[in-house]
Amino acid sequence: MNPKVSVIIPAYNTEVYIKKAIESVLNQTLTELEVIVVDDGSIDKTVEVAKSFTDPRLTVIVNPQNLGVSAARNLAIRAAQGEWIAVLDSDDWYAHERLEKLVLLAEQANADMIADDVYFIKDGATSPWSTLIQESGEHIDKILQIDIVYFVETDVYGKTGLHLGLSKPMFKREFLVKHSIEYDETLSIAEDFWLDMKCLINGARFFLVPEAYYFYRSRSSSLVRESPFKRLNQYCIATYSFMQQKAVKKNPALMRALSYNLTVYNRTLAYYQVSFSIKEGKWLLALKELTKNPSFFYDFIYKFNDIIQRRFQYYVMGNELVFEMLYNIQIKRRKPMHPSFYSPSNNK
Fold first, then answer.
1. Stated pTM of the model
2. Residue 89 has what pLDDT?
C-alpha cells in the first residue's frame, strides 16, 4: 500500500539541522508516510546523519555532485509513491500534526495543493518571531482558496504582501504527474514560486490554511551583501517566459499582474545599476547608468526611509528575512524595457 504522503527533503551541507527536520516528519501524527532525502553533493556529514536513522520509511538518495535544489527535488518527486507530496527544507521542520491537519483539510476541500501559514524563527531562538500571514498585512482567519491572479498580485518584489512563494504547499502527486509538472532546473532562485505558478495555470485548486505548522528557520546569509542582479535577472527571464504561454495570454488580469511585476523588476534593476556603481566607486559607469535612469534620485529619496528601516531590522533586530521578503520598496509603475531585454542571451 502506497503511503499517504511523501515528504521530500533536499539537503546540502546541513549536518547541524537535518536530524531535526527528519525527526519532525517521522514523529508526525500521520504515520502513513515516506521520507525521501536527496543529498546534493554535501561535503560535511549530512549523509551520515541522514543514514543514521533506521526507520524503514526513510530513503536517502545521494548525488555525487551538487546539481541544485530544483534537480534534487525533482529526483525525489520521481521516486515518490505517496498520494501527496510535501516539501521540507533540510534546515526547517514541521509541527507534530502538520501532515494530518493538511491532508484532512485538503480532502475536505478537494484541493490539488494546500499550504499553511509559516512560522519564522531565528536560528538558535526558542520561539518564532512572526508568521508569513502576520507580516503580509493580510487578514486571513479561515481557509482561503488562492487563485493565480491573487497569488501574483500579493507577491510583488519590494512590497509588503502575502508572498506565498515562500510557503511550502503540499501537492497532489496525481496532479503533478498528469500535467508533467516539475521544478525548473534552470532556476536557482524562487523555484517554489514558479512551481506553484505551473500548478495554478493548469487549474490547480489551491487552498491556504491560516494556522502555521511549518517552521522556517532564518539563518545568517549573505543576502545583504550579495548583488541582487542575478536574482532580478532570473525573475525577469522567468516572468517574461511564463507570459508567453497561451493560457496566460488568454487571462487579461493575470497578464496585467505579471506585467506589473516585470515593470517592478525592471525599475529595481535599473536603480541597482546606479547604486552599485556608486558603491564601487565606478563614477563613469554610474553617470552612464544615470543617463539611462534619470528617475534614480527620485527613487532614492522615496526609498531612503525604507533603506534605513531594513538595515535596522537586519542589524539590530536580527530579522534576516528582511532582505529576502520584506524590502518595502514602494515602486510605482513605469513603462518596461523591450521584452528582448529579458531574453537569456542578454542576461548572462
1. 0.82
2. 96
